[in-house]
Amino acid sequence: MMRLGRASVIASLFLLTSAVPAYAECAWVLWFNPEANVHMVESAHSSVTECDVALVDMRAVLRKDGYKVYGGSASSDHVLLGERGREHITYRCLPDTVDPRGVKGK
Fold first, then answer.
1. What are the domain boundaries of the chain?
2. For the whole model, what pTM was predicted?
3. Residue of 90, 104, 98 whose CA lies nearest to 35
4. What is the DSSP letter of 49?
5. How many angstroms separate the first and last alpha carbons of the chain?
């Protein structure tokens, strides 16, 4: 019984590690979230690196427009937060397989 459990763990780890490179190579979308429960596509990119560059560019635009900016750098987990008074906005890079609006109904 112990061998079966160990084999399951090894198989699971193999599947997880083999999926990581494919996930990193997919297309990425920069999502704009101007208010709660509103998500809009800002731009699409062929890699996470390109999406992160767009995020850094957006960081400069927001600062110029008077926002306090948090994140939007290489170590920010692909998220940029902007705050100006009571206005809060979010930009987030996500793989094109992830839709922050949730599952579409039929």
1. 26-95
2. 0.69
3. 90
4. H
5. 43
